[in-house]
Every structure is written in C-alpha cells, then in structure tokens.
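FAQ: What does a multi-protein file look like?

Like this. Sequence, then tokens, then the next protein.
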Amino acid sequence: MADMQEARNDAVTPYKDAPTRTITAGGVTFAYRDLGPRTGTPVIFLNHLSAVLDNWDPRVVDGIAAHRRVITFDNRGVGASTGSTPRTIQEMARDAVTFIRALGLEQVDLHGFSMGGMIAQVIAQTDPRLVRKLILTGTGPAGGEGIKNVTALAHLDTVRAVFTLQDPKQFLFFTRTADGRRAGKEFLARLKERTADRDRAISLIAYNNQLKAIHRWGLEQPHDVSLIHHPVLVANGESDRMVPSKNSADLARRLPNAELVIYPDAGHGGIFQYHDQFVTTANEFLDRQEARAAVGA
C-alpha cells in the first residue's frame, strides 16, 4: 500500500517540488530526484557541463514525467553527490551505470543533454542491454567538429556574462536574436521556480574536471556509432555554438536507427526554447517504441 501511495504522489508531484533522495553505490552517495508514474521504461536524464539537479528545465522534466517515470541525478562529485568528478566521459558513463543499477533498474531510456549526450553514447556501447532507447540533445560524437573548443567558449561567455550582469547560459544556450534573448530569460526564470531543498552548486574542481573530459572527447578518434542499434532521437537548435549543430546531423547520419529534429533560431538550449514541441516529440518517440515492443511481444 505504501508503494502504491508513493507512486500516486510521484505522478502528480512537479519537478520543483520533487524531493531530493540519495542512494549509495560504488563508494559514492548519489543525489537524485524521482517522479512520474511507475509504468513503462524509466527515463534517466544525464546532465550538461556544470549542471546540478536544479538546472533541468522543469517544463521538460514535467512534460515527460506526465507519462512515465523520470529520474534526474548528480553524477559523482557533482552537486550533492560525493566523490571526485572524473576527467573522462568514459568514467562518467561507468558511474552513471553504477547509479542506474543501484536503483535496481534492468532497462532504461536515456536522455542526455550536451555532455550528458556524450555519456549516453558510451553507455549504449558498453552496456547495450541496459538501454532501450536514446534521446541525444545538444550533443555530438567523439572527435566531433568544434567540441574541443568548449573550454575556451565557456570561459569567454562567462566573462561576457560577468561584465553584462547576466547568466552565462544566456550566451551559451541561446541566440542573440530577440526570440533567443526572450527564450533565455524565460528559461532562467523557470530554473528559479524551485525555492526549497535546492541542490548544491557544482564546485570549481568538478567543473574543471568536466571541461577536461569534454576536451578529451573532442580530441578522440571518432567512435563507430554504427554499433549503436538502439532507436535514437537527436535534437538541437540550428545555431549551437557550444557543440556546433552539424554534429547533430553527423550523429543522425551515422547512427543506423536515428531521427533528427532541428529547431529554428535556436542555440545549444534549443530543447528548452522549444520545450513544448520537444516534449511532444520526445513522448511520441518513446510511446512509438513501446507500441512496437508490445506488438512484437
């Protein structure tokens, strides 16, 4: 009865009110939030550079959690999770798998945004049976064009933000057009909707380690992503400066079972600027695969 009551409560709890929980595995205590109905395949959200639990757009989380279980978490050394942040994407992927298995989950869907999309690609190759399908947003493949420049770009836009009294994400995630600026301000306002039990900000050491991991990913020889046979939804804005948008097209072309969505007049945070459209597309993608699995069973 308690489990049924918890499931009902989680199904109606918005992300801004979802409790922060912890679970310990592999010597790490992971902080996470878990919401949505306990039906279907859970979706694990893999976060971007410098992000903690509070950096997920609540409209995206709530929109997907309205139909299925969604779990967000801080990987090792990030936010309220313990340990030291790794300096490679591969190590981050291993930690993410440790967290997923600690929850007792046998199969999940992965939504990886930016750095999280890099982690998702590795998990799909190292632990293919753990993954049912992938949503890769604002991300690119190993060795992708321009990815090695993320560190310099992040530093530049952080300085710009300081001198203009703005959040760096206004520059990093959104275009400088009128629509882009407005979308950025609305996104940043949504991130402040949670007023209680907020996560701990990422440490400078963890942030620098993440930058090193992304830089190394950008310098790697291209991976054979044709080995990823899972259904994949790839999405991005048409003017992504952090992970140039042509990387999304490259991923979609090289993955054997992928579809591509590109949002106009949008940057790295295209899925946040077009959150309504993205949520609809993501849910249709997830439902369509579930329907096929049911027919084939």
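And here is the next protein:
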Amino acid sequence: MKATWNGTVIAESDSTVVVENNHYFPADSVKAEYLRDSDHTSVCSWKGTASYKTLVVDGAENADAAFYYPTPKGPAAQITGHYAFWKGVTVAP
C-alpha cells in the first residue's frame, strides 16, 4: 500500500494493519521528513488516545493528517508503532 499526498509518497508498505478501514503503516515505512509534530489528540473508546502529525510537502501543510496511537489499549495492540492517514491522503495499492 502507498499513502500519497500532494503528489508525494508519504508511506509505502506491504505489511499494513487494517483497523476500521484504515491502513496502519509501520513507522519505518513512513517518510519522517514529511511529518511535523502536532499537539492535537483524540480519544477512541477501544483504541485509546491518538496523537497526530501534520504533513508538510513542498511547503504545503495538511494539519493533523497522520495519526497514531502511542500506547493503544489491549484490543488495538497490533497498531502499536503504526501510522494511519486521512484528510485527503490517498491510500491505495
């Protein structure tokens, strides 16, 4: 799978984990140079607290478009160390 935004591949992996129709990419498959820290968080009742990253590609920003669960709850343990994307990021084979 590939995650693409603004014409740039942000992440690519043959071993994503699918949860609730989101492909979670292993952290080492995500190009960290396109990620910037964000203070935004949200809470899922069964996965726990999500943290976010803003995508920055060629000077364009997509605020909070990458998310991950630093310490997911037990039922979501398989997404530890993985990122998912939304807000206009295309995820496709």
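Q: Is there any per-entry metadata?
A: Some entries carry free-text notes. For the entry above: The chain has one domain: 2-92.
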